[in-house]
Amino acid sequence: MQWGSASEFFAMGGYGLYVWTSFVATALCMVWEVLALWRRRAAACAEQRAALLGGTDETTA
Amino acid sequence: MSTDINWLKYSSPQAFYPLAGHLIPWFACVAVALMGVGLYMGFFVAPTDFQQGEAYRIIFVHVPAAWMSMFLYVVMAVWAGIGMGLNARLSFMMAQAIAPTGAMFTFLALLTGAMWGKPTWGAWWVWDARLTSELILLFQYAGVMLLRTSIDDVRRADRASAVFALVGVVNVPIIYFSVQWWNTLHQGASVSMATGSKMASTMLTAMLLMTVAFWLYSIAVILARVRCVMIERESSPVWNDEKPAVIQETVEAR
Predict the structure, then answer these.
(1) pLDDT tens, B28-87?
(2) Which residues of chain B from 140 to 169 reach within 8 Å of chain A, CB to CB?
(3) How far apart are alpha carbons B249 and B253 in whole angstroms?
(4) Inter-chain contact A55–B232, Cβ cutoff 8 Å?
């Protein structure tokens, strides 16, 4: 291991800003994608249920 | 050993939907585990690069994201082609489900590339062949998605975006070989099928672990998205896998 302390680790030899921006941005994109899919699924399921139960079924062609 | 599983039946959305539902947790769990190991290797085991210092660690997200951006485009184009050839609904749905994840990885490849370029080259962006062709790939993903949303008729939207995706696939080899064909600021391949790797083995292991993790993550989110697409496009009692009996009874009672 090459890190003497936690602050050395976060400094990344002076490149901390670039390294951590890259990793945090990637993590945020992935988390956002999963959450967006969660919401999309909930919305689609709700619409499907409403169509099935409501009688005005526009989704079946 | 011969198995009697009729794989063709999974070309129907109604059969693929529950299969995808069972597969998603497995892909997601292995992806998270490999990402954990990959990050540990990348930050604590892999040594400091003698030329680039610690900035090189960006490659542990940059290279997997860039590879996925190209790979997913090819997979999307293949599904689009199968959809065109066989007029298969599931193929078009898969192509539709891949585009947003591919676009996200293309964006991340460009962003993390800029984060690497600034300290290493002294510029966030240069109009070199590798960077420019990757930017064009982002526009292609955007084009595929915009074309779909701009056409109301689903089957016409499928075909239009499939043609767009198929024509654009020529850009993928251009991106891949750009560092050989042109004199680019972007460095050449450090990992190649022909000559092997020029990196320290722990660096390579960390990068490959992250690549496999990104790949499994992509499969998980694409399967989750294709399930959403199926619900949005078609009506079927199969979709209600939470409480099928309750819904079925209510429908039958009416």
Answers:
(1) 999 999 999 999 999 999 888 878 888 999 999 999 999 999 999 999 999 999 999 998
(2) none
(3) 6
(4) no
